[in-house]
């Protein structure tokens, strides 16, 4: 029996989880019932660059970053290069989304920490947005840009153990809020973003004990979700999607392209390394980095500089130029893109050319993302239970935009001029 005649939709994102993690994630007893009912696709490619915000936007729009408008986690803010804002706001997204389409079809929607949903038209919205200024308060930021009364109620009920964005406290709070929303609020479509594994892998590496502990916590959350849906009678009428957005790779060295640009006179700074003027600038995507030119007459000079750096630094895997960048779906406004070799990633400071992660303090990440999604060892997964889907295990040529387009097809929604394809291989005739 369907609620209000509608098939419900629940989308769960497990940030930084790859298909290599499924043995742990899928090991719970209750979740095995879901697996028997679901199509499980391995080998799913993230977008380029393979970062959280472009990836989650691709899922809900069916578009690659170049067309969705979300081409990085970070905004281009040259004067705040050491701590730029993120692309938090729905207004940055081009075109329609799954949650917009749901709402236009009379669905009541909810979202818990789904990226790029600040000020989105979602009935119960707890957006992911950070306190990025000294005068900001995390709670105030969330309340201002989401559904205030809903969030206050969740905080009153479950917020006692929260310590900012520390894990697993944050995901424990999100889990409890998800269960409460599913059982006590009249919602038809819900998106939930869990970041426990992503945070832990950044801090401790991909395969350590801490990461495995975080994966087991996800296992328990998924088991609890299935148990709750069965206890409330919503399981059969709910289309349940569980997906990853990208994987991570272990790191040992940070590269700083802006140091090289400053050394070459393309960035002018004062004695405090505050930017006075620039002709070229790098904005990191962790495992990749955009190079933007303010003065395109410097294009040949910058190209030569980058290739000389690549020849002298084993951390740089490839240099892409604008036609290649656009073809891979990244930001067509940039002139060059750097790709890091395994073990390396990019940041935007300019005091030195490179730095060992172990010497970098809080900015040092033991593992990160942003690498080429074509790498088979860097793939993620897509799982869906729906009456229109054939259960089974699949390994397909599939990417994140395909997920959004396929979900839209199952619900009779239209994402417009999307990049993804309907994955007919998993659909019933």
CATH topology type of the largest domain: Alkaline Phosphatase, subunit A
**Level-2 CATH architecture of the largest domain:** 3-Layer(aba) Sandwich
Name the beta content range.
Answer: 15-25%
Number of domains: 2
Helical content (DSSP H or I, runs of 4+)? 25-40%
Low-confidence stretches: none
Which geometry do the CA atoms define? globular
* Radius of gyration computed on alpha carbons: 21 Å
A few lines on this structure:
The chain is an alpha/beta fold. It contains 14 helices and 18 strands. Helix content is 33%, strand content 21%.
Keywords:
single chain; 429 residues; alpha/beta; Alkaline Phosphatase, subunit A; Gyrase A, domain 2; four-stranded mixed beta sheet; 14 helices; 18 strands; globular
Describe the 3D structure.
This protein has 429 residues and is an alpha/beta fold. The protein folds into 2 domains: 8-248 and 375-426, Alkaline Phosphatase, subunit A; 250-368, Gyrase A, domain 2, CATH 3.30.1360. Helix content is 33%, strand content 21%. It contains 14 helices and 18 strands. The strands form 4 sheets. Strands 4-3-5-1-6-17-2-18 form an 8-stranded mixed beta sheet. Strands 7, 14, 15 and 16 form a 4-stranded mixed beta sheet that branches. The chain has a 4-stranded antiparallel beta sheet with strand order 10-11-13-12. It starts with 7 loop residues before the first strand and ends in an 18-residue tail after the last helix. The model has no long low-confidence stretch (mean pLDDT 96).
């Amino acid at each position: 029996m369907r609620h209000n005649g509608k098939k419900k939709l629940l989308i769960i994102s497990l940030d930084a989880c790859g298909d290599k993690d499924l043995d742990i994630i899928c090991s719970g007893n209750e979740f095995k019932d879901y697996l028997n009912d679901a199509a499980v696709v391995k080998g799913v490619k993230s977008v380029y660059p393979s970062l959280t915000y472009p990836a989650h936007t691709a899922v809900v729009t069916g578009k690659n970053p170049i067309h969705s408008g979300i081409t990085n986690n970070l905004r281009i803010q040259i004067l705040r290069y050491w701590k730029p804002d993120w692309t938090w706001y729905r207004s940055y997204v081009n075109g329609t989304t799954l949650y917009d389409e749901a709402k236009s079809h009379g669905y009541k929607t909810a979202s818990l920490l789904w990226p790029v949903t600040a000020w989105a038209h979602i009935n119960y919205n707890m957006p992911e947005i950070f306190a990025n200024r000294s005068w900001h308060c995390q709670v105030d930021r969330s309340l201002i840009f989401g559904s205030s009364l809903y969030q206050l109620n969740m905080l009153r009920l479950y917020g006692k153990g929260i310590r900012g964005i520390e894990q697993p406290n944050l995901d424990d709070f999100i889990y409890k809020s998800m269960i409460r929303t599913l059982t006590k609020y009249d919602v038809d479509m819900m998106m939930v973003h869990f970041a426990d594994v992503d945070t832990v892998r950044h801090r401790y590496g991909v395969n350590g004990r801490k990461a495995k502990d975080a994966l087991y916590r996800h296992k328990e959350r998924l088991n609890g979700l299935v148990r709750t849906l069965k206890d409330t009678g919503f399981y059969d009428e709910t289309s349940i999607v569980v997906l990853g957005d990208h994987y991570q790779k272990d790191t040992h060295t940070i590269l700083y392209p802006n140091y090289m640009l400053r050394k070459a006179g393309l960035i002018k700074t004062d004695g405090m390394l505050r930017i006075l003027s620039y002709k070229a600038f790098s904005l990191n995507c962790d495992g990749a980095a955009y190079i933007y030119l303010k003065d395109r007459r410097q294009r040949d000079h910058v190209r030569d500089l980058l290739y000389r750096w690549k020849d002298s630094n084993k951390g740089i895997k490839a240099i892409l130029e604008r036609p290649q960048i656009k073809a891979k779906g990244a930001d067509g406004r940039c002139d060059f893109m750097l790709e890091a070799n395994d073990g390396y990633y990019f940041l935007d400071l300019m005091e030195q050319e490179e730095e060992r992660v172990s010497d970098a303090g809080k900015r040092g990440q033991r593992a990160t993302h942003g690498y080429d999604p074509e790498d088979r060892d860097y793939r993620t997964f897509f799982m869906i239970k729906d009456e229109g889907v054939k259960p089974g295990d699949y390994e397909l040529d599939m990417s994140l935009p395909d997920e959004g387009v396929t979900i839209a097809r199952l619900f009779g929604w239209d994402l417009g001029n999307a990049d993804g394809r309907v994955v007919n291989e998993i659909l019933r005739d």
